[in-house]
C-alpha cells in the first residue's frame, strides 16, 4: 500500500468456480489500474479508453486470449468512464467469471473504482 494521497488502493478476493482469485485496484486521477490473478506476476496488460459514446482498447503486452481480456477492459472503461489499465494473469476460461465479479463489485462499491 502507498502513502501517496493521490493514489487510492483496494484489495479483495473472490471465488471464481473453485479457485480463489485476488483483485488489486489502484485509482489515480483519471485512471484505474486493476490486477487480477492468483499469484503476483504481470503477464498481460490491456488499456481501455473511454471515448464519447463508446470506448476503445488495446493489448499493451502479453497474451491476448483472442481479445476477451481486452474487450473486458474496454467495457470496464466505458462503465467507469475513465481510462482503465488491466493486468490479467488467469486463463481465458475464467474471464467471464472475473468480469461478473468485477461488475457486481462496481455495482455495489463504485467508489472503489473511481
Automatic annotation (TrEMBL):
- Source superkingdom: Eukaryota
Keyword check for ATP-binding, yes or no.
no
Q: Transmembrane stretches, by residue range?
A: 20-36
Question: One of this protein's GO BP terms?
Answer: proteasome assembly
InterPro entries in the record, alphabetically? Answer: PAC4
**Keywords from the named record:** Membrane, Transmembrane, Transmembrane helix
Record PANTHER family: PROTEASOME ASSEMBLY CHAPERONE 4
- Name under which the protein is recorded: DgyrCDS12225
Q: Which organism is it from?
A: Dimorphilus gyrociliatus
